[in-house]
Amino acid sequence: MTEFLIKLFIKNHHDTASLRVRQSYGKLVGVVGIIANLILSVAKLSCGFLFHSVSLTADGANNLSDMGNSLVTYIGFHLAARPADKDHPYGHARYEYITGLLVSFLILMLGLSLLKDSLTDIFFPKETVFHMAAIWIMAGAVVVKLWMFFFYKGIGKKLDSIAILATAKDSLNDAFSTGGVLLSFVIGKMFHLPLDGYVGSLVSLLILYSGWELVRNTMSQLLGEAPKPELVNEIKTEILEFHESIIGIHDLMVHEYGAGQLFVSVHVEVPASQSILTSHDIVDQIEVHFMREHGIAMVIHLDPVETDNPKVTELREKLCAVVADISPKLHIHDFRVVFLASHNNLIFDVEVPFEFPYSDQKLEEMITKEAGKENNCIIQFDKTY
């Protein structure tokens, strides 16, 4: 069913890197969510009022909020697809994260409201009317929500969209909560137990938890979280394998301005003896390759490395061994030597992971001590993923 809808409504649906295709996916997700949740909310709210069930009313209100969330998602993807302009040169794709944050606040507000009503029903219970119509509606709602979970999850993975994956999780929570309401109806009828308010409270807590998780995830994206290690490794591998003259890379920075909007800067080491025109042509080819193949805007800085001076090579290898003995997580780059009459100035950078236990000052002391008295170390420490 999911593939049928995708093929029916989305042209070039395989090109998920395209903002236009992402917009089409987002609109499809929004329309499906609006229609399905509107039908479920009307059915549940009607039964909740008719049969005096706070848990069923809460479940229906949850579907009503889901309909609003789908509307926000629809609008968010529409705004995210707007092209870059002079005020927003990196595009508008972060609208997708902003809409996810708005959805999360709506979910939290709804959860608090429903929790209040459910607690009131626990202390001042009303008699719930048992009717088979409510049973069938809830059973049907569980089936629909499970289908929506797989629908959203499939599209969310295709687009790597945190907003749609969050909606998928919310749909699964809805299926469980509706199933809980259904179970409370049956058990309450069989054993004459006033479970309605208690189940309504559980549904409300589930809604609150879902809202908090969505707040946490979307805030992380908006603040600018680290890129996925798989993406970093893929970029490094492709650059290193692009041409035989590339010695190494460092200072790789990945900036994401919304899903599918990646900007990368990196330093590429090449032999100092190689023509600057040749080296420049190679990095130009790399930048073009990443834009054409991955839609990644890349800026490369050339770092010439002296490879034909035996003394420089010896000092570099010795220093690499010193740093590796401290920790295999440390790496050096931008190594160069200034030979003076009394000593050598070793000028280089050290890549240090964010979680590394030693301070930069402590590391500098350890490296300087092992480098030898005849070598003066001038070190720049770079934080890396």
Q: How big is the Rg?
A: 29 Å
State the CATH class of the largest domain. Answer: Mainly Alpha
Q: Tell me the CATH topology of the largest domain.
A: Alpha-lytic protease prodomain-like
Number of helices: 11
How do the helices and strands follow one another from N- to C-terminus? HHHHHHHHEEHEHEEHE
Second-tier CATH architecture of the largest domain: Up-down Bundle
Classification by helices and strands: alpha/beta
Give the CA-based shape: elongated
What does this structure look like?
- This protein is an alpha/beta fold.
- It has two domains: 2-223, Alpha-lytic protease prodomain-like (Up-down Bundle); 229-384, 2-Layer Sandwich (Alpha-Beta Plaits), CATH 3.30.70.1350.
- Helix content is 63%, strand content 15%.
- The protein has eleven helices and six strands.
- The protein has a three-stranded mixed sheet with strand order 1-2-3, covered by helices on one side. A three-stranded mixed sheet has the order 4-5-6, with helices on one face.
- A hairpin with a 5-residue loop joins strand 1 (248-256) and strand 2.
- Helix 2 (19-50) packs antiparallel against helix 3 (54-80), helix 3 (54-80) packs antiparallel against helix 4 (95-123) and helix 3 runs antiparallel to helix 6.
- The chain is elongated.
- The mean pLDDT is 84.
Break the fold down into its secondary structure elements and pairings.
Elements: H1 2-9, H2 19-50, H3 54-80, H4 95-123, H5 132-159, H6 162-191, H7 196-223, H8 229-240, E1 248-256, E2 262-271, H9 276-294, E3 297-305, H10 310-326, E4 331-339, E5 344-353, H11 360-371, E6 375-384
Parallel strand pairs: 2-3, 5-6
Antiparallel strand pairs: 1-2, 4-5
